[in-house]
Amino acid sequence: PDPVPLPRFGRGSMGGTQSLALPLGKGPHAVGCTDVMVGHTRQGLFLRLFYPCLPRAGAEQPLWIPRYEYCGGLADVANRSRRWCAPLLSVAIGSCRVPGSWNGPFKPCSSGYPLIVFSHGLGAFRTLYSSVCSELASWGFVVAALEHRDHSASLTYFCTAEAGREEWIPYHRVPQGQKEFYFRNKQVHQRAEECVRALRLFEDISSGKSVPNILHQDFDLSVLKDSVDLSKVAVMGHSFGGATAVLALVKEPSFRCAVALDAWMFPLENALYPEVPKPVLFINTEKFQTPESVAKMKRLSSRNSQTKIITVLGSVHQSQTDFTFLTGKLVSRIFDARGTLDPYKGLDITSRAALAFLQRHLDLEEEFHRWDNLLEGIGDSVVPEAPLCRSNL
């Protein structure tokens, strides 16, 4: 089964109250963001960086869909004709902006911000989790949201050494006649390697190496040099990205814990489970998980008492993406993005549980332990473990 409930276009007006606002982070820091591309081949890296920044009046906010081409990529994932679907999406959501200061001045921090490497879900790309990434950055994290190059992003690209030439990497379905597990397992390994490479990038910056950002943004990566604490690094992701985060813990000892949002556990090989050395926080939505997937999570929690599984009631798989905030009828219909839970409340639960967990396992000196109850599944709209499971997706 495809892990992402794919868009369903229905009849009906494009109208409805179209809210195109993503929420501002609630933490004490203003949030800046920039795009970083390193290397001229697909072995390089592409990510959106969210970071605490100095507030700036009239700061420019970047578009949520970074370029029109991504509307075509979303149409491909939805199995719709690019010809009519891409312009429709562009009209419906093309004006939405990310509530962060584009290339905003980085706020230095002598003690160093902890780092989170974030992995997107199948058919997504680097900006579709801006609400949760901005929220974490507002509480004092540097968040590197990758755009994976394993053909699981709805679309991505790299810039070749030839001036100005872009090579696009489209979304790929499982080839006919190929077993889905083998196809996805190869992808999840590539994705986890990209998470490790993202960490290496920050190690290079911290060691004072010059890291050229080939997108020529007005943001010099060397400003991060003494402000990221590489002893406090976590990996996080949604769906396919949740499985990627679990695998990254196995590949890279520097990742101290993982937060997996509605993890799609299918692509991980069984031999891996005994190898996962660090704690994982699984934050599941009510409508997505299968008993098979939850059984895999429970294998990890039975080996590590610090691994936690909680379920957010009234949520659907897309509740953990930005789509849940785009409430127009069209978008809700295309992306099946709304559960019954208020999306702002869902984001609060997800981010607070993550912050409490990160404080515990990265040894942070913050007040995030005030949300520790959530890790036991205690609270409004959250329950421990995964009580309500459907046997098929």
Write a brief caption for the model:
By secondary structure, this protein is an alpha/beta fold. 29% of the residues lie in helices and 19% in strands.
- Kindly report the name of the CATH homologous superfamily: Alpha/Beta hydrolase fold, catalytic domain
Number of folding domains?
Answer: 1
Strand content: 15-25%
Shape, principal axes of CA atoms: globular
CATH class: Alpha Beta
Per CATH, the architecture is: 3-Layer(aba) Sandwich
What order do the strands of the largest sheet run in, or round the barrel if closed? 3-1-2-5-4-8-9-10-11-12
Q: How many helices does DSSP assign?
A: 9
EC number: 3.1.1.47
Keywords: Hydrolase, Lipid degradation, Lipid metabolism
InterPro entries: AB_hydrolase_fold, PAF_acetylhydro_eukaryote
GO molecular function, one term: 1-alkyl-2-acetylglycerophosphocholine esterase activity
